[in-house]
Amino acid sequence: MAMPLAFKQGGLLFGTVGTVAICAIYAHCVHLLVSTSQKASKRKRVPLLGFSETAEAVFSNGPRGVRPMATLATRYVDVMILIQSFLSFCLYLVFIAKTLKDVLYNQQQIDWDTRIYILLVLIPAVVITQVRELKYLVPFSGFANAIMITAIGIVLYFVLSEPLEIEDRNMFPQWSTLPSFVSTVLFAIQGIRYILPIENKMKHPEDFLARFGVINIAITFLTALYIVMGFFGYAQYGDQTQGSVTLNLPSENALAESTRLLAAIAVLLTLGLSYYVPMEIMWHKLGELVQVKYHNWAQIGMRFAVLIVLAAVAIGAPEIEPFVGLVGSFGSGTLVVLYPVAMDVIFRWPNGFGWMKWHLVKNIVLFVFGLLVLIFGTYSSIMNIVDLYR
After folding, report:
1. In angstroms, rounded to a whole number, what is the distance separating the alpha carbons of residues 86 and 94?
2. 3-class secondary-structure state, position 278
3. Residue at 373 is within a domain
4. What's the pLDDT at 319?
5. For residue 322, is it left (φ>0), alpha (ψ between -120 and 50) or beta?
6. In the Cβ-directed half-sphere of 385, how many Cα atoms lie within 13 Å?
7. Transmembrane stretches, by residue range (predicted)?
8. Model's pTM, two decimal places?
9. Count of CB atoms situated within 10 Å of the CB of 127
10. What is the extent of the structural domain holding 336?
11. Any domain includes 345
């Protein structure tokens, strides 16, 4: 739903080509992460490793110069996953709240502040975020996907029901909007923190990286969906394109209003999945400090306390657009590109780079790309946020 905003920042032509390139880079970095984790687990003789555990195993067994950095690398991964997860969660709360606000105002002329709706969203969120097992979150996610696909179909119906004015739209980005385009696409496709937990839970993990396996099929489908939604969404709404295309739909149409509600419900149902990885990281650190007989109550308290803090953050900054780019650049720039590439280089060092060291050259190019996304994307997003609240 954020892809029309990305195409607004990147232009129709560049946005199409750029989306394909970024999604291809994302898929390749996922392959690097999973393959490195699998090889590191074999070398360590353990059945599986998480993201931070992979970083620890790779750095501690890498070249002598990086071994002292193993602990720092592990903690950095955990901290970045927590930051990205919590920022994303705040965005989801704001999106649901703004959607409810628009629908109720359009239908009942109820003009409550967005912050009130964030508080209302907390009621179901308290229940959903208490689900701790990944297998119990799968039905929620599957139902949410079905709802979202329905919503996307209705959105495309509205987008394509009116003539498109392509000639009046930007084809290429300005230098000032290019970082925001890359960051927004990375936000839309983000999911790197779920990769290893899902791969580790699979019955047949070898299907994850196969030529026609989970990752390649999923990314191909998503790339096509993102391009269609982004291209036609921006072509239809132009400079009026908002952070979620559902906010551009006609408010007087009942079907359009139902689409907004469907998208909000779908996001609400995925809150538990968004909570899973950061809560696993936090409990891994805090669980050791609590007696076993109090583990259940400690988990309940921790999950509830974090939810209240995140809701407070969302109430303090109830806007979507500037924070979309911040999450994409700050979180995804590091976790999606920099870390998988760095760990692949360290694991292969010094003689595993193939003919003419092409693996090393390719990884250097990807690493520079990740640094640019991190530096310029984060700077651009922060400046947008400062301008918004100035």
Report:
1. 12
2. helix
3. yes
4. 67
5. alpha
6. 17
7. 12-34, 76-95, 115-131, 143-160, 172-196, 208-234, 254-277, 297-317, 323-343, 364-386
8. 0.80
9. 10
10. 2-95+135-252+317-389
11. yes
